[in-house]
């Protein structure tokens, strides 16, 4: 299967091409702090350049996978609209991939490749602490995938990690205040029915709110670690596994209502009270 995948849930634009032999090549645009994301201006150009570099024609594609969030509203709109438009014009399959799942998947893959048990600069244990008599197979690692949601919040999901590379979801993605991360970890451990877990966090939200996560006993890799990036390779891998959907069924998962809607409601309520 020849698959094109991309994600625009964060300020970065990531594009990947999974070739028929399973190899994935990718390009990305990571704006510097303070720079505007290049989703609208760079996505199609990057995609065309990647296909040309690989010697692959648009007509050779079999499927398109796109990160559906949660994440930045504008970025998700651009990414999903572009994916739907391309899939329809090329008459190929379309798959939506949860961006937080892709973030966790990429971190798990990197962990296995590097043998980095700590998943970062340090690893903390939370809950009841580690029992010295606990069996090695019972010492589990938990991972929080965290994307900056603005408004002083994050989009986060909790996963269990193992040596099988594919993370298992414990708590689904939702928006929360960084101070509530400790509660999210406790909820994840309760659902797993385990204690003494080692927890780490990845993503731009983990970098921005590092102090909050570390206070909750969650380790965060150094700011510029590749663990914090949503990779197009993970989008392609997950997109190849999942079932294709109808074009109109692939929509952005904003994780909460857009700012414009809530702002409009405030204006209407204020005008109503003044009437």
Give the tags.
globular, alpha/beta, 2 domains, Nucleotidyltransferase, domain 5, six-stranded mixed β-sheet, 275 residues, five-stranded mixed β-sheet, 11 strands, 36% helix
CATH superfamily membership of the largest domain, which one? ATPase, nucleotide binding domain
For the biggest sheet, the summary is: 6 strands, mixed
Number of domains: 2
Low-confidence stretches: 117-138, 260-269
CATH architecture descriptor of the largest domain: 2-Layer Sandwich
What CATH first level of the largest domain would be assigned?
A: Alpha Beta
**Can you tell me the CATH topology of the largest domain?**
Nucleotidyltransferase, domain 5
Which class of secondary structure composition applies to the elements? alpha/beta
The number of distinct β-strands equals 11
Q: Helicity range of the residues?
A: 25-40%
User: What is the overall shape?
Assistant: globular
Instruction: Please state roughly what percent of the residues sit in beta strands, choosing from under 5%, 5-15%, 15-25%, 25-35%, 35-45% or over 45%.
Output: 15-25%
Give the SSE layout.
Elements: E1 3-7, E2 13-18, E3 24-29, H1 39-54, E4 63-67, H2 73-90, E5 93-97, H3 99-114, E6 124-125, E7 141-150, E8 153-161, E9 168-176, H4 181-192, E10 198-202, H5 204-208, H6 210-215, E11 219-220, H7 232-241, H8 259-274
Parallel strand pairs: 1-4, 4-5, 7-10, 10-11
Antiparallel strand pairs: 1-2, 2-3, 6-10, 7-8, 8-9
Helix pairs in contact: 1-2, 3-7
């Amino acid at each position: 299967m020849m698959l094109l995948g991309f994600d625009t849930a964060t300020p970065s634009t990531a594009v990947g091409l999974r070739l028929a032999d399973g190899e994935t090549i990718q390009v990305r645009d990571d704006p510097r702090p303070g720079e505007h994301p290049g989703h609208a201006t760079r996505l199609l150009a990057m995609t065309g350049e990647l296909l040309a570099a690989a010697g692959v024609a648009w007509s050779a594609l079999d499927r398109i996978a796109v990160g559906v969030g949660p994440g930045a509203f504008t970025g998700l709109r651009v990414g999903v609209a572009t994916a739907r438009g391309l899939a329809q014009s090329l008459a190929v399959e379309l798959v939506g991939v949860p961006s937080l799942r892709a973030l966790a998947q990429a971190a798990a893959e990197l962990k296995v490749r590097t043998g980095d048990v700590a998943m970062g600069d340090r690893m903390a244990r939370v809950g009841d602490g580690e029992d010295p008599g606990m069996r090695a197979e019972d010492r589990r690692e938990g991972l929080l995938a965290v994307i900056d949601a603005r408004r002083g919040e994050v989009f986060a999901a909790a996963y269990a990690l193992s040596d099988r590379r594919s993370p298992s979801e414990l708590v689904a993605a939702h928006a929360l205040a960084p101070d509530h991360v400790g509660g999210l970890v406790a909820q994840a451990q309760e659902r797993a029915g385990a204690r003494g877990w080692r927890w780490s966090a990845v993503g731009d939200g983990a970098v921005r709110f590092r102090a909050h996560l570390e206070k909750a006993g969650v380790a965060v890799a150094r700011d510029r670690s590749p663990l914090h990036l949503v990779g197009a390779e993970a989008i392609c891998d997950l997109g190849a596994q999942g079932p294709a959907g109808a074009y109109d069924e692939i929509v952005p998962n904003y994780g909460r209502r857009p700012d414009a809607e809530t702002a409009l409601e405030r204006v209407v309520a204020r005008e109503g009270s003044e009437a």
